[in-house]
Amino acid sequence: MKIGYSLDENDYLNHQLFIASKSERIKKKRQRNKIIIPIFYLPFCLMFVLNKQYIWALFFIIVPLLWFFIYPIRERKRYITHYSAFIKEHWNERFGKLSTVEFSNEYIIATNNNSESKVACIEIKEIYELQSYIYINLKDGQSLIIPKEKIENKNVLIGRLKELADFLKIGYIIDKNWEWK
């Protein structure tokens, strides 16, 4: 099966955010950043409660609570800004270029611009199907990004990829509710 499509900045951005959301290291870092300030404020709150200065104690309760709920929103936007800048700097020459990908049981052949890459299917680690994308993750950390809206016969492609995943005994993970948060 052979498909053709082009990728834009948003396609690369969604892929980077998806990869970040699945990274254990980034998950731990984001959780740590969310709770470190509230933990830092806790001794001050206790100190003011013990000194019966309840107004200051309330302040040192409210500020960490606000941080706990507002910081994740700010952090999400920071990741988007960071990845957008990275993508514009490093991958802008790839935007809008026609790519073709051909699937067989042995190889995936991807062609774009003046280059062609041939990857053995045994190098596929897992396949993710999201609401708008299909990501084929390889064992070396690279991925194929397939935007579902930009291809014809997406149901045929999905069926073919499920067959390939079964043949290779790898995961075909459907996560149509994924969103960057």
How does this model look, in words?
- The chain is an alpha+beta fold and 181 residues long.
- The chain has four helices and eight strands; from the N terminus they run βαααββββββαβ.
- It has a four-stranded antiparallel beta sheet.
- A hairpin with a 4-residue loop joins strand 6 (133-138) and strand 7 (143-147).
- The protein is elongated, with a radius of gyration of 22 Å.
Provide a compact summary of the structure:
With 181 residues, the protein is an alpha+beta fold.
Distance between the ends? 34 Å
Give the strand content. Answer: 15-25%
Q: Report Rg.
A: 22 Å
Oligomer: single chain
SS-based class: alpha+beta
Tally of separate helices? 4
Approximate helicity band? 40-55%
Helix and strand pattern: EHHHEEEEEEHE
Uncertain regions: pLDDT < 50 for 5+ in a row?
A: none
Mean pLDDT: 93
For the sheet with most strands, the description reads: 4 strands, antiparallel
By DSSP, the count of extended strands is 8
Q: Any idea what the shape is?
A: elongated
Can you list the strand order of the major beta sheet? 1-2-3-4
Features:
four-stranded antiparallel sheet, alpha+beta, 181 residues, single chain, four-stranded mixed sheet
Please describe the topology of this protein.
Layout: E1 2-6, H1 9-22, H2 24-50, H3 54-91, E2 98-103, E3 107-112, E4 115-120, E5 124-129, E6 133-138, E7 143-147, H4 154-168, E8 171-174
Parallel strand pairs: 5-8
Antiparallel strand pairs: 1-2, 2-3, 3-4, 5-6, 6-7
